[in-house]
Amino acid sequence: MTILITGATGNIGRHIIRLLTAADHSVRALTRDPAKADLPAGVEVRAGDFTDFASLEAALEGATALHLMTAFGPANTTVPNSRDLFAAAEKAGVRRVTLLWNGYAGPVEEAVEASGLEWTHLRPGEFMSNALGWAEQIRTEGVVREAYGEIGHSPVHEVDVAAVAAAALTEEGHAGKAYMLTGPEVITVPEQVAAIAAAIGKDVRYEAEPPEGARERMRALGFEEDAIDYVLGWRADPPEFARTVSKDVEAAAGRPAKTFAAWARDHADAFR
Ligand SMILES: NC(=O)c1ccc[n+]([C@@H]2O[C@H](COP(=O)([O-])OP(=O)(O)OC[C@H]3O[C@@H](n4cnc5c(N)ncnc54)[C@H](OP(=O)(O)O)[C@@H]3O)[C@@H](O)[C@H]2O)c1
Questions:
Q1: Which own/partner pairs from 105-109 qualify as long-range (CB within 8 Å, at least 24 positions apart)?
Q2: Is the full-model pTM beyond 0.85?
Q3: Ligand 1 centre from 152 Cα, in Å?
């Protein structure tokens, strides 16, 4: 078995690779820049880009399973030519596919459902790792400024998304399932800030930020207006799947989803 992982250097892909290699599966990693990939020894690293179909076809050669991000890059561009991509995957000998959605069921999910592949949809709400965006404010000022922070949400640990992906790529029983992946609790930003403060043993303040202030801050960081609208719209009124608790991590991975307090301990060094 050779399992091809896209987004291999990203938040989810790195953990899928760690889990698969620990279980002695043979892993091939796709990245645009193998020289910078910094992946574990034993992983076969292949150059490839979602915008270069031939590179994907080449990476699929001999693969028996595939983990696919459905969107990529700063504008969350949908992976193009997905019907052709799945046809190439079938031709190469792929049987199982996991798809990491981008918050909605789009053309890539439709294309896999129309293929002959055994698919599993991974549908996370918000990643806990988005909180790494607060690291600089916490390190330099001991503060987190965020708009709509009092509105509860149920972010998921990246390790939990990866654990469900690893199970679906290697075990029977996950084909045709759509897993809603959340953390085990609904939590507010002030509660997340308190968990980070406890993990680093230092006071961290939460300051409610007016939406216009958040807009200005994101503009200064180089965000496009569309992306700012999306983020602020989501924070003001998260979709139901991102503010309720699903049991799907436990059902698919065989253990409870990790708390934000555990995530904060796992990432404490980033905030010190
Ligand atoms: N953040 C969230 O809360 C959230 C929630 C739900 C779903 N998602 C989805 O989860 C996925 C990962 O999101 P993330 O924010 O955590 O990002 P991330 O893991 O940091 O993603 C970056 C990854 O995308 C790869 N990539 C970027 N452009 C590429 C291209 N043109 N061709 C091939 N690979 C490319 C990068 O590979 P190289 O640089 O090595 O080439 C890297 O491995 C995205 O599809 C996102 O839409 C995110």
A1: 106/70, 106/78, 107/78, 107/82, 108/68, 108/70, 108/78, 108/79, 108/82, 109/70
A2: yes
A3: 25
